[in-house]
Amino acid sequence: MSRHDEQLVASQQISLIQSYESLLGRTRQMLDLADAAEWEALIGQESDYVIAVGQLEQTLPMDDLDAPSQRRLGELLEQILDNDLAIRQRLVERRDALGGLIQASRRQRDLNRVYAGGQVVNAASRFGQDSA
Hints:
Blueprint: H1 3-35, H2 39-56, H3 67-114, H4 123-126
Helix pairs in contact: 1-2, 1-3
């Protein structure tokens, strides 16, 4: 491999590590948003995250990395996956909470229907009996 090729590979390795460090920063921001229950902002960040991950798929193969770069990349990937798992756990908790609210709303709606919107119904008049 020529000196120029070695420099190119070294530059690509640095760029790849920096891309993963950036991705790690993005997952930290997303986790902070999830912890703060900033769901709309989290969803906005998620689309950027997916794009960033897609761009990484087009980068240097892992086999072309030297041992220190592979080690660093492994550390970054582990942290990224840990953050991703934590974000997913927060989203599941949020989904479950929303599911509970939906169930409570349905029960309230059903109760309102049963009690005719809060109006007292004279059962005697419904069955053809006068209450005189």
